[in-house]
Amino acid sequence: MKIKNSLKSLKARDKNCRIVRRKGRVYVINKANPRYKARQG
Fold it and tell me: Which pTM does this prediction carry?
């Protein structure tokens, strides 16, 4: 999982990417291709 300051560019990498908020953290998840997972902060 990558940790980034801003997820805006990561969201555009793949059409299956979704931005999700969990426990105050922002995540990018991708069920089709899990290598695009990322977390902000």
Answer: 0.81
